[in-house]
Write a structure and sequence with these properties.
This protein has 203 residues and is α/β, with parallel strands linked by helices. It folds into two domains: 150 residues, no CATH class; 38 residues, no CATH class. It is 27% helix and 30% strand. It is built from six helices and seven strands; from the N terminus they run ββαβαβββαβααα. Strands 1, 2, 3, 4, 5, 6 and 7 form a seven-stranded mixed β-sheet that branches. A hairpin with a 5-residue loop joins strand 4 and strand 5. The longest helix has 16 residues. It binds zinc ion.
């Protein structure tokens, strides 16, 4: 496939413009900007469920979009976009309960289709790209939010090598239970007769 050379138009990065981008006309677009977390209530809601830290007012995400047209060998054209998202957000580590700044880096590619039928028939197992319905008033802001929401970690934690918690991390084990097991095992190993002594005094 070869890429068609046509002029690229710079996208207006204001919130209202991002709510209606023309992907129908075939105009090539490039855009880049910063979105404050305060302007992304759906993401703030989800982060709050995962204990969003304080002082997030100056945090947010950097987005970049570019589009291109692939010319097919047998004629015809395919319009594609690539979205790069970098989100920084303060959270409370669910293992050591200390605040930390987590980051999410995403690169997603989409092909624009002209009918809903074409979007629905697009193979789900395509790992390289997803299909979207081309529209003259495409909700780019919503797509950006969706991509972030789909990729937020369920339980935010420091990477094991950075976390200050001394607990051994076993996936799937609730941290509190894990700590109790750990402490009991430690007590037993310190004094193997501890439980025996207790029996004696009880008698
Ligand atoms: Zn931690």
């Amino acid at each position: 496939m070869t890429r068609k050379h046509t002029p690229v138009k710079e996208l207006n990065a204001s919130l209202s413009s991002l709510a209606q981008v023309d992907f129908k006309s075939g105009q090539l677009l490039h855009g880049k900007g910063f979105l404050n977390l305060m302007d992304l209530p759906r993401i703030v809601d989800e982060l709050n469920k995962r204990s969003l830290g304080d002082n997030f007012s100056d945090q947010g995400l950097v987005w970049e979009l570019h589009s291109w047209i692939d010319e097919l060998p047998g004629g015809g054209e395919e319009y594609r976009i690539q979205l790069t998202l970098d989100l920084l957000y303060p959270l409370e580590c669910q293992r050591c309960l200390k605040p930390f700044l987590d980051e999410l880096h995403l690169v997603s590619q989409f092909i624009m289709k002209d009918s809903l039928e074409d979007v629905e028939n697009f193979p789900l197992d395509n790992d390289d790209e997803d299909a979207l319905l081309a529209s003259p008033q495409f909700q780019l802001l919503e797509l950006i939010e969706d991509e972030i929401l789909l990729n937020l970690p369920l339980i935010p934690k420091h990477p094991p090598e950075v976390c200050e918690s001394k607990m051994i991390y076993v996936p799937g084990v609730v941290d509190g239970i894990e700590e109790n097991i750990h402490n009991e095992a430690e007590n037993l190993s310190k004094n193997p007769f501890a439980s025996l002594k207790k029996l004696k005094f009880d008698a």
